[in-house]
Amino acid sequence: MGIVRAVCVSEKKGTSKHPVAMGEFVEDLGIAGDAHAGKWHRQVSLLSLEKIQEFGRRGARVEFGDFGENLVVEGIDFASLPVGCVLSCGQVQLEVTQIGKECHSHCAIFQQVGDCIMPREGVFAKVLKGGVIRPGDSMEITGQNHRFRVGVVTMSDKGAAGLREDESGPLIRRMVEAGPYLVVEQLLIPDDQPEIERTLTRLCDRTGVDLILTTGGTGFSPRDRTPEATLAVADRMAPGIAEAVRAYSMTITKRAMLSRAVSVIRGKTLIINLPGSPKAVAESLEYILPALDHGLAVLSGTAGDCGSSHKVEKTAETAARKEEKAAENK
Question: Which domains does the chain have, with CATH numbers?
């Protein structure tokens, strides 16, 4: 059980937040009036009071909101919680979506003492159910949602230049979030191999996503370099997925044989190249999504191997056949 000690907001991003008497938490948005509210995975930021106090003993004068946190809570070590953990405070329910963050600019606290605790101690959450939170309210851990963290990356020179609307990236997001997946980053970048490699590496190694779905850059154009960038960052191959997509797509159009898409593994992240057109993206995802959750569970170490699952299925099938025969003999 934890106790909320401060609710903080800011009107602009990149500034410290300030304490308020109460916060109105809006479902799938964040705190009303806060600059970081929006349709993304970091709607609310949380810090443990104990971590702030520990930092303050190093000589820095720290006020609530200085690290950019929305909620300061006593009694819960947020950094130790797993992604997917559900926190309840009155009517409000929050789902932890990210632990820590990469700082792109140093806050005032960092300028004072050369350090900031938000990147390693802060956690971020989405608002599952709305309501009001005030200082003094109690907070508790009430559940655990298991959703695979996904990065969606669209490769398009024209899209990155603002000359073409990205339809495939948002489509991927809508399709995967209908299942056990949470898109934590959706990006639109040029067809530049070094930039693609950097983006894939960061999503795997720093953000720690379970799955990266790319769209675009898999054809014969000289600027299509997505497969080369994907192979450059791979630790292991997972060719069956790309082969399955091509084989299925060949039943729809013979031009599917022109796809150079690949599927690989880096660390504990699966990377899959999808086609560029929204129609082909929808067809490909509909075909492979039913099998992906098991593969990702095995990759993350949260499920058994395919062989053991197959044995269970075969055992169940054998038992069912025995029951059918017994019924026939009666």
Answer: 2-144 (2.40.33.20), 148-306 (3.40.980.10)
